[in-house]
Design goal:
The chain is α+β, with helices and mostly antiparallel strands. The protein has 8 helices and 7 strands; from the N terminus they run ββαββαβββαααααα. The protein has 3 domains: about 100 residues, no CATH class; about 55 residues, no CATH class; about 50 residues, no CATH class. Helices cover about 50% and strands about 15% of the residues. The longest helix has 26 residues.
Length: about 230
C-alpha cells in the first residue's frame, strides 16, 4: 500500500517500508520464515500474539527476495485494525536497525501524507481548481488549498482527540494525577501520629512535642523533605 524507498541504486529493497491489510497483501508476497516461504496469514496464524494494550500484535523477522534472488532480512509488524478488530495491518521494513515503534511512527507519518494528497486532489481540487497559467495565481491557489486542509485537519482532531481541548485537557489530567511520594508520606505519618495521640489522649502541646521528637529522630534528608512538603 505504501512504499518509502531509500536512495540506494545497488539494492532496491533497502530501507523499504511497506504496509497493507492482511487480506490485501497475503496473496501477493511470500516471505521466508522458519525455513519455508509463507504468506503473512500463515505467519500470523503460527505465532503467539502480544497481549494487553501493546501498539502492535506481533513482530517477526523474515527474509524477502529481490529481483536477483538475493535474500534480504526484513521485519514484519502486525498492527490491529481499529475499524475491524478481526483484521490487522501488516508493515514491513528492511531496515533492521529501527524498532517496531519507529516503524509504526514512520508509517503513520507516511499515511498522513497520503491522506493529504487524497483530500487535496479529490475534495479541495488542488489540480483542477485553478486553470490560470500565472505562477502567482497557482502559488496562491496552492496556499489556499493547504490552508483549507489545515482547517479540516484541525476540525477532525478536535472531534477525535481530547488533547486538542488545550488547557481543559491538562486541568482534567491534573485532577486525575497521582499524589507525590512526599505527599503520600505526609498523609501516612500524619494519620499515624493522630492515631497515637487519640489512643493516648494527648493534648495539643504534647501532640506537637511528639511530632518534634519524631522529626528529630529521623534522618536529616527525610526530615527536610517532610518540612518542604508540609
Amino acid at each position: 500500500m505504501v512504499l518509502i524507498p531509500r536512495s540506494d541504486p545497488q539494492n532496491r529493497w533497502s530501507g523499504i517500508l511497506h504496509g497493507g491489510y492482511g487480506q490485501e497483501i497475503e496473496k501477493k508476497i511470500h516471505y521466508l520464515f522458519d525455513g519455508k516461504k509463507q504468506s503473512v496469514k500463515d505467519i500470523y496464524a503460527s505465532c503467539k500474539k502480544r497481549r494487553g494494550r501493546s501498539r502492535y500484535l506481533l513482530s517477526v523477522s523474515v527474509e524477502v527476495f529481490n529481483k536477483e534472488g538475493q535474500q534480504i532480512p526484513a521485519r514484519l509488524v502486525f498492527v490491529r485494525n481499529r475499524s475491524n478488530r478481526k483484521d490487522y495491518l501488516v508493515l514491513i521494513s528492511t531496515d533492521m536497525s529501527i524498532d517496531e515503534d519507529e516503524i509504526i511512527r514512520l508509517y503513520g507519518k507516511r499515511w498522513a501524507i497520503e491522506v493529504f494528497f487524497k483530500v487535496a486532489k479529490s475534495y479541495l481540487r488542488i489540480v483542477k481548481g485553478c486553470s490560470s497559467r500565472s505562477y502567482d495565481a497557482i502559488t496562491a491557489h496552492t496556499a489556499i488549498t493547504c490552508a483549507g486542509y489545515i482547517m479540516l485537519a484541525e476540525l477532525q482532531r478536535f472531534q477525535e482527540d481530547s488533547r486538542s481541548l488545550g488547557d481543559l485537557f491538562y486541568d482534567t489530567f491534573d485532577e486525575l494525577k497521582d499524589i507525590t511520594y512526599q505527599e503520600s508520606l505526609i498523609l501516612i505519618l500524619s494519620a499515624l501520629l493522630e492515631a497515637v495521640s487519640d489512643a493516648l489522649s494527648l493534648p495539643d502541646e504534647q501532640h506537637q512535642k511528639l511530632v518534634e521528637i519524631f522529626i528529630s529522630s529521623i534522618p536529616p534528608l527525610l526530615a527536610k523533605r517532610l518540612e518542604f512538603a508540609a
